[in-house]
Design brief:
Layout (H helix, E strand, L loop, with lengths): L11 H17 L5 H32 L1 H7 L3 H32 L2 E4 L6 H15 L23 E8 L2 E11 L8 E4 L6 E5 H7 L1 H5 L6 E11 L11 H14 L4 E7 L4 H10 L8 E4 L37 H7 L2 E5 L5 H12 L3 E8 L7 H11 L3 E6 L7 H13 L3 E3 L6 E2 L2 E9 L2 E9 L11 E8 L2 H15 L16 E2 L3 H17 L5 E6 L5 H13 L2 E6 L16 E6 L4 E2 L2 E5 L6 E5 L5 H5 L1 E7 L3 H15 L5 E3 L20 H13 L2
Parallel strand pairs: 1-5, 7-8, 10-11, 11-12, 13-24, 16-21, 18-19, 19-20
Antiparallel strand pairs: 2-3, 2-6, 4-5, 6-7, 9-16, 10-14, 14-15, 15-16, 17-24, 18-22, 20-25, 22-23, 23-24
Helix pairs in contact: 1-2, 1-4, 2-3, 2-4, 11-12, 15-16, 18-19
């Protein structure tokens, strides 16, 4: 990837591409299993698709604003778009080379991904039958040369762009498009193979092999097919109306998303030039647009589901274990009466969250459950427990964020399910997304009322909790839950007034006081340095973009505060300067699990202040979302979280340095130095603690 010049501010979109390059490095790493390397190729591809749907689409809009955009971005959107295209083409070339290397390594294990020209005679009959029985009824070619208007090409789909010719009549040719039906059929088909071998063919190559069956009756005898795809603008327009009209507009915009402006056209670089020119014109694309030549295969996101059954050397991975304080059968609420419990996913089992909600659903003394939901699992156990709580007579309130990007359609469906069962669903706030992860359970026995709940860094989604690294505090702390109630009280009003969130005394919340809260804590560390006391700040985030907080961290580092950053993706801070001495150590960890947690540790003169949060340090989180951070007050749990971040800070495997150049250098390890792979070490640390 092109190195950024240290004197330039780090542009968030270029920093994001640097993050995706780190994902690609995992696909390149020979120490990673071949199955996981294929999955990392899929993750890289899926990430890039979303980047073009949202960020590139936004930059295209900003470019049309001219000078106004430059003021907003403090950069030239046209220049950023040019750098994006150059960088993406370079990464795509790296991607293709890595894939070819993986293909060679698969062959060493006698695993072969074959195309339609490489199949054996005994496989031909299988492919023809598979096509006849399962594929042919799912495809309808579009004869694009003869129809007046270019048909709408679906985002997320891949197409076989075909050139059809008659060898005897040179000018007799036609163009056709075939959508590959990967939503109804598997992308990978295991073929009958020779003993000791495993042959796999992609669905599009089954169609390629059968093109003569499809088109020969129309007078063609020469066929070629090339995979291509388009990526569309998927950013829904902001809407101020949180009401039924919002629902109607969301439904309309979800449909319109499928018709969004093309932001990228990716194609097989061997695509017939006449067909390429034809498609570019019909799609309204110019050389300024993102025309990305690539390899033979596209939509590599499907490789995240590459068949694992064919591998014999898969290492059995450690399974999540139940927190020792929450082992069933046990009542969880009495445990929380005595102490807080901090869960660390995916090391701890998410089942404990379900167990708590199930307990609340059947406890005769529980009166109500209030919970925020941003992204839910496809077959959500969370929803199931909430529905059964209503059936057991509890009052259940769900703050359901309909505008969770790419989950809008699913959440609209969940709204209907929940409301049909009698759950009170609240939909959000004017100009805001509700991203906080909160729950409060009210239990009344006799004249005594007690409350329980949790604050989490991640979504209440049991599927993603299996591979997202997050933290969740289960508590009965009166002060914490009083603030959780204040958040719900503000959200439940017919016209929510977020100024009421300023009443929160224990939880820093956005958009009212979160940024100011962190600024105050950073300033305190600077004061400790002035008093010749030890001062340090550890910040773990997905993304660090907010200009003011970046400036405060740099100010602290210049003053002598030790600043450590663990940033998964976007990192816009300059970690060194020729003008000032700054002690900023920034790293990024890319490994088997997605590092998703937000954690903050301030030394505070030796009495650490430790927080978990749902919010990254980005303008959107701090100014345009309802977010919550939560203090970890139990010294035992503080130490646990500090130990975990210390393990990550000392990681020298799967860890890259985030420098001004964003060139993704690995953390160097001396020969005498012990290897520290943080995700493995954290599992061992927590599992060992569970045995004590």
């Amino acid at each position: 990837m092109k190195k950024l010049k240290a004197k330039e501010p780090i542009v968030r979109d270029l920093s994001w591409l640097s993050f995706n390059e780190r994902v690609l490095q995992e696909a390149k790493d020979p120490n990673v299993s071949l199955l996981d390397r294929l999955k990392f190729l899929g993750i890289f591809s899926n990430n890039l698709d979303e980047f073009f749907r949202v960020r590139v689409a936004t930059l295209n809009k900003m470019a049309k604003l001219g000078k106004a955009a430059k003021v907003h971005l403090e950069a030239n959107p046209e220049g950023i778009l040019r750098e994006i295209q150059q960088t993406v083409i370079m990464l795509q070339n790296d991607f293709d080379n890595i894939y070819q290397q993986i293909i060679r390594e698969l062959s060493v294990q006698n695993i072969y991904i074959k195309n339609e020209t490489q199949i054996l005679p005994n496989q031909e009959a299988f492919i023809r039958k598979y096509y006849t029985d399962k594929v042919s009824s799912q495809i309808v070619p579009l004869m694009i040369e003869t129809i007046p208007h270019m048909p709408l090409l679906r985002d997320k789909s891949i197409y076989l762009a075909c050139v059809l010719r008659n060898k005897k009549i040179k000018k007799n040719f036609s163009y056709a498009l075939i959508e590959i039906p990967t939503t109804v059929l598997p992308r990978f088909v295991i073929l009958p193979s020779e003993k000791g071998n495993t042959d796999i063919i992609l669905l599009e190559d089954i169609i390629r092999f059968n093109l003569p069956n499809l088109f020969a009756p129309f007078g063609f005898d020469d066929f070629s097919g090339y995979i291509m795809k388009v990526t569309r603008d998927a950013e829904l327009e902001a809407d101020n109306d949180v009401s039924n009209s919002l629902i109607e507009k969301l439904e309309k915009q979800i449909k319109n998303r499928k018709k969004g402006k093309t932001t990228r056209f990716v194609f097989d670089r061997t695509l017939d030039l006449g067909l390429l020119d034809f498609l570019s014109k019909r799609l309204g694309l110019t050389k300024k647009d993102n025309l990305i030549p690539g390899g033979r295969i596209h939509n590599f996101k499907d490789f995240m589901d590459f068949p694992s059954s064919i591998f014999e050397d898969l290492i059995s991975r450690p399974k999540p274990f139940v927190h020792p304080k929450l082992l069933q059968p046990i009542r969880i609420m009495p445990v929380l009466d005595k102490q807080d419990v901090l869960l660390h996913f995916p090391y701890h089992s998410f089942d404990s969250i379900i167990d708590l909600l199930r307990e609340a659903a059947i406890d005769p003394f529980v009166q109500s459950i209030k919970i925020t939901c941003y992204r839910l699992a496809k077959n959500s156990k969370i929803v199931n427990t909430l529905v059964n709580a209503v059936r057991n007579g509890k009052k259940v309130t769900v703050m359901l964020e309909l505008r969770a990007r790419f989950d809008e359609e699913a959440n609209l469906a969940w709204k209907m399910v929940l409301e049909d069962e009698g759950v009170k669903v609240i939909l959000g706030v004017l100009n805001m997304k509700v991203h906080a992860k909160l729950c409060v359970i009210k239990r009344r026995e006799g004249n005594h009322t007690k409350q329980y709940g949790f604050v989490s860094t991640g979504n209440l989604n049991e599927s993603t909790a299996a591979f997202y690294g997050d933290h969740c505090l289960l508590t009965s702390n009166r002060n914490i839950l009083a603030d959780v109630n204040r958040v719900f009280a503000a959200l439940e009003k017919p016209k929510p007034d977020l100024s009421e969130l300023a009443l929160c005394k224990t939880l820093p919340v956005a958009p009212t006081n979160m940024r100011k809260f962190y600024v105050t804590l950073i300033d305190k560390e600077i004061e400790f340095v002035k008093k010749k006391k030890k001062a340090s700040i550890v910040v773990k985030l997905n993304s660090l973009v907010d200009k003011l907080l970046i400036e405060k961290l740099q100010q602290a580092a210049i003053a002598g505060v030790e600043v450590k950053l663990i940033i998964r993706s976007i990192c816009c801070i300059l970690t060194s300067s020729k003008s000032y001495k700054m002690d900023i150590k920034a790293i990024s960890i890319i490994d088997e699990y997605l590092e998703h947690a937000r954690v903050f540790i301030f030394n505070n003169g030796g009495l650490p202040k430790v927080f978990i949060s749902s919010a990254d340090w980005m303008i959107r989180n701090l100014d345009h979302r309802v977010e919550a951070a939560c203090p970890i007050l139990d010294p035992r749990l503080q130490k646990e979280l500090i130990d975990i971040l210390n393990i990550q800070s000392s990681s020298n495997v799967k860890t890259r340095i985030l420098n001004n150049e964003q060139d993704n250098q690995y953390v160097a390890r001396k020969e005498s130095e012990q290897a520290v792979r943080s995700q493995v070490e954290i599992y061992n640390y927590l599992f060992k603690g569970s045995q004590n």
